Amino acid sequence: DAGVTQSPTHLIKTRGQHVTLRCSPISGHKSVSWYQQVLGQGPQFIFQYYEKEERGRGNFPDRFSARQFPNYSSELNVNALLLGDSALYLCASSSVRAVAYEQYFGPGTRLTVT
Amino acid sequence: GESVGLHLPTLSVQEGDNSIINCAYSNSASDYFIWYKQESGKGPQFIIDIRSNMDKRQGQRVTVLLNKTVKHLSLQIAATQPGDSAVYFCAENIGDGGSQGNLIFGKGTKLSVKP
């Protein structure tokens, strides 16, 4: 059974550009959460989506947005990229709304903003 | 894979010894705690969890201790193996048994196991 998959694996963008990151949850999982992990730090919560609705949002600017599709896959969009957006972006899926447990992480997308 | 362990506190142990990784959490209202293991180039992997109404929980080779008085969490790994080398994060959650959408991660500790 496939785990959480994310694409692309690596991405290099220029300041001011926008980026779309994609996540496919484990089959049967209806909750997807996004985290940002800056090098040397723990992941920071960005969004949670459950049954295609936003259920939680972390302390991130409006440049960050996300959505979940009918097949429960998800996209994270970041506009007007800043150098500080360079990080590993992690997606996690869960079979229930409760995001804290039964949560499985993908390998992440490494975003570099130059 | 790119390391996630740069500039993190490091614990170095000999293979076969026991490891203790500590974590101070921030919110006295947190009611659910999780330990994650993150290897280079991979996402965090669930190790063990504990609810705030417990002070100890054991898994396979791992034990988590919770001291709510001083807001301290520890992870004990018995008979540490080279495959245990990774960055370990504690995470806390405020809400009804994890129903809230916000996991707060600590800064992490890099465990290095010497053969």
Major sheet summary line of chain A: 7 strands, mixed
- Strand element count of chain A: 11
Q: Give unreliable regions of chain B as ranges.
A: 1-5
The class by helix and strand makeup of chain B works out as mainly beta
Radius of gyration of chain A: 13 Å
Strand content range of chain A:
over 45%
- Secondary structure category of chain A: mainly beta
Following the backbone from N to C, one meets helices and strands of chain B in this order, namely EEEEEEEEEE
> Can you give the mean pLDDT of chain A?
92
Task: Report the portion of residues of chain B in β strands.
Answer: over 45%
Detail the poorly predicted runs of chain A: none
The overall pLDDT average of chain B reads: 87
Description:
- The complex is a heterodimer of chains A (114) and B (115).
- Chain A has strands at residues 5-7, 10-13, 19-24, 31-37, 44-50, 53-57, 64-68, 74-78, 87-94, 103-105, 109-113.
- Chain A is mainly β and 114 residues long.
- In chain A, a hairpin with a 6-residue loop joins strand 4 (31-37) and strand 5.
- In chain A, the strands form 2 sheets. In chain A, strands 2, 4, 5, 6, 9, 10 and 11 form a 7-stranded mixed β-sheet that branches.
- Helix content of chain B is 0%, strand content 50%.
- In chain B, the strands form 2 sheets. In chain B, strands 1, 3, 4, 8, 9 and 10 form a 6-stranded mixed β-sheet that branches.
- Chain B is globular.
- Chain B has strands spanning 10-14, 19-24, 32-38, 45-51, 56-58, 62-67, 72-77, 86-93, 103-105, 109-114.
- Chain B is mainly β and 115 residues long.
- At the A-B interface, strand 4, strand 5, strand 6, strand 9 and strand 10 of A face strand 4, strand 8 and strand 9 of B.
